Amino acid sequence: MSKPKLNRILLKISGESFKGDRESGIDPKSIQYMANEIKTVVDLGIEIGVVVGGGNIWRGAEAEKEGMDRATADYAGMLATIINAVALQDSLERKYSIDTRTQSAITVQQIAEPYIRRKSIRHLEKKRVVVFAAGTGNPHMTTDTAASLRAIEIEAELLLMAKYGVDGVYSEDPRINKNAKKFNNISYQDALTKKLKIMDSTALALCMDNDLPLVVFDMFKKGNLKGILTGNKNGTLLSNNNIF
Asked: Where do the domains of the chain lie, and which CATH numbers do they carry?
């Protein structure tokens, strides 16, 4: 097996991943599966931070369409990410004995630490998994943007965007058009020009401006996460020069 070349990574897990095959809510089997995949990274000696979404519980954009104030809707979404974060922390610690810390961008001291960059880096250096919740703590900002921002702040060498049932970036939605073309490598500039639906443009621009490589992959194909970190090519690589 190839030795991992990376020291620290940031994994973004969507809210969709937490619900598994359910229509909404949390599927304990999905959480345990994701915790096990994260354990494979810990076992490699790689430091890992995790940003979680909350779309399985609450979607601010949809609430806004129903007449709710957008900022209020987004704050409710932040609370949803905290629920997912503590559920993942529980699985990592209780089932796999992995020392884990949840840090929140909004204050919920009974549940999670406040996000402090230097403290999160110190946790990572001590080989603890750090789960980042509540996005950036600001309305109108997605958890994708939070993932890009946290990856840059903690000086991660790679951002991994975990998808549920999608194994990379395509020219169109492969679930709608079976002839959609999959990209193995694509530059950030091309992704923005083609308006590919990978993550929001703010998140992509942050990665591009800070020269942070990104891999979009299907986390629910067992071994994919570890495979990427040990030299197997799966998913789609986005970078400024198509080389990583």
From this structure: 8-239 (3.40.1160.10)
